[in-house]
């Protein structure tokens, strides 16, 4: 459907924005025959790209907090995950999609179990999902073939939705759960199918120390030796990278995804070297990680925490400005996904949101981007459009009550009714 957004604030001026065939076709005018959305009192901004999450973990929100990483995983998260099936993942992912839409995110990169459940949720909710499972062989050579087969099946099932908004990705969990052989096989699958390669990397010091002990090199160097780095590489976390690793990432391409809330909550003990990464031309994007370690998917909050963490850690308030972190959450993500998005300009994809400027936390409006990053949260988003499809208008998303009811049921089914 063609859309005309009337009287909306864009770069400090009121204008009209026209959407035709999923793309921003014109700024400044449009046809009266289009669906008209009143933009008065609102600003139009590109919608966010959440570059690293595990969407169905919404079901675990608030279930296990304030714990050390290993007991948190072993005692709480893994036992729950063993109970998941495609239907539960579908319901958890629907809740995640609802939350993302309500806080202005229209694209996300997901790594999780029962990927078909997430793909179904994305197909019903209308946003863009870049979806993978998580290959894990725990260094058991007997599991190699089965993991390769599983990955190929996942690609097939994501593709079976036949939508350019539902895109398969190859996911390998991490270097401490996946053997070198399997990491290489997954890379071959990704390259052969022209897909991205998603992995957790350098999240903790323990991971780095163990890699050096076992392989004689740091994690990124290890991946480079295996031939895994490249333009299609998505490395989540990267908080313990040394200079050589940062240079390698810059030379090979791909992106690093910063997940500041998760890093702080799990106390990983280090901070992303943002300046080092960008001075080596690494594309730095932003992600929420899963809801068990965040506990929400709000990219406004993620931007604020990212900026504050850099300033606080490096004792320099000029480090990571509001403009830079806004780009990290928008244009850098679109670039990583190979989409012409992240800007409200003619010819860019119509992935955007309208923000209500009458919300208390948006007043006064001295600097809109500052307000987005340091003051606002997802509740200021009023309307969301993805590829020309209206996903939310007047803060109403289709079937919201049903999605919430089903997610509550699914969460109770997993942890048991504790009311
Ligand atoms: Zn993660």
Question: What's a quick, concise take on this entry?
Answer:
With 419 residues, the chain is α/β, with parallel strands linked by helices. Helix content is 40%, strand content 21%. It has helices at 69-81, 86-102, 115-125, 144-159, 180-192, 205-215, 219-226, 243-252, 260-265, 274-279, 299-314, 322-329, 331-337, 368-375, 400-415, and strands at 3-10, 13-20, 23-27, 35-38, 42-46, 48-53, 105-111, 128-132, 166-168, 170-174, 197-201, 233-237, 255-258, 283-286, 352-356, 381-386, 389-392.
General description of the model:
The protein has 15 helices and 17 strands. It is of the alpha/beta class and 419 residues long. It has a domain of 287 residues: TIM Barrel, CATH 3.20.20. The strands form 4 sheets. It has a 5-stranded parallel beta sheet with strand order 10-11-12-13-14, sandwiched between helices. Strands 3-2-1-4 form a 4-stranded mixed beta sheet, with no helix packed on it. The longest helix is centred in the first third of the chain and has 17 residues. The chain is globular, with a radius of gyration of 21 Å. The structure holds zinc ion. The site of zinc ion (ZN) has 6 residues, from loops. The site of zinc ion has 6 residues, from loops.
């Amino acid at each position: 459907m063609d859309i005309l957004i009337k009287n909306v604030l864009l770069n400090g001026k009121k204008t009209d924005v026209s959407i035709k065939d999923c793309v921003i076709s014109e700024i400044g005018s449009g046809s009266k025959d289009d669906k008209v959305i009143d933009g008065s009192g609102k600003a139009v901004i590109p919608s966010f790209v959440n570059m690293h999450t595990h969407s169905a973990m919404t079901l675990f929100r608030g279930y296990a907090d304030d714990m050390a990483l290993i007991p948190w995983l072993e005692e709480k998260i893994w036992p729950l995950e063993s109970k998941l099936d495609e239907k539960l993942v579908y319901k958890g992912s629907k809740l995640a999609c609802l939350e993302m839409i309500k806080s202005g995110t229209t694209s996300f990169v997901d790594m999780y179990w029962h990927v078909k459940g997430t793909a179904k949720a994305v197909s019903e909710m209308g946003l863009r999902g870049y979806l993978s499972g998580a290959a894990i062989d725990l260094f058991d050579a007997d599991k190699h073939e089965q993991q390769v087969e599983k990955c190929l099946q996942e690609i097939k099932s994501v593709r079976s939705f036949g939508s350019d908004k539902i895109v398969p990705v190859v996911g390998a969990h991490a270097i401490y759960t996946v053997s070198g052989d399997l990491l290489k096989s997954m890379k071959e699958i990704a390259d052969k199918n022209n897909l991205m390669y998603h992995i957790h990397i350098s999240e903790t010091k323990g991971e780095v120390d163990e890699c050096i002990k076992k392989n004689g090199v740091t994690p990124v160097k290890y991946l480079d030796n295996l031939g895994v780095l490249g333009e299609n590489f998505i490395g989540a976390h990267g908080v313990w990278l040394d200079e050589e690793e940062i240079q390698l990432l810059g030379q090979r391409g791909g992106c690093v995804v910063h997940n500041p809330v998760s890093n702080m909550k799990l106390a990983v003990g280090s901070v992303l070297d943002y300046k080092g990464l960008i001075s080596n031309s690494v594309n730095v994007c932003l992600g929420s990680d899963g809801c068990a370690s965040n506990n929400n998917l709000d990219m406004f909050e993620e931007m604020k925490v990212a900026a504050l963490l850099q300033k606080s850690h490096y004792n320099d308030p000029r480090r990571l400005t509001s403009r830079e972190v806004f780009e990290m959450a928008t244009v850098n993500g679109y670039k990583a996904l190979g989409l012409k998005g992240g800007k409200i300009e003619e010819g860019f994809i119509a992935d955007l949101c309208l923000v209500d400027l009458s919300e208390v936390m948006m007043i006064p409006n001295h600097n809109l981007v500052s307000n987005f990053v340091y003051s606002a949260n997802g509740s200021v988003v009023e309307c969301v459009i993805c590829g020309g499809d209206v996903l939310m208008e007047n803060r109403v998303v289709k079937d919201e009550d049903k999605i919430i009811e089903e997610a509550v049921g699914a969460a109770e089914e997993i942890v048991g009714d504790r009311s």
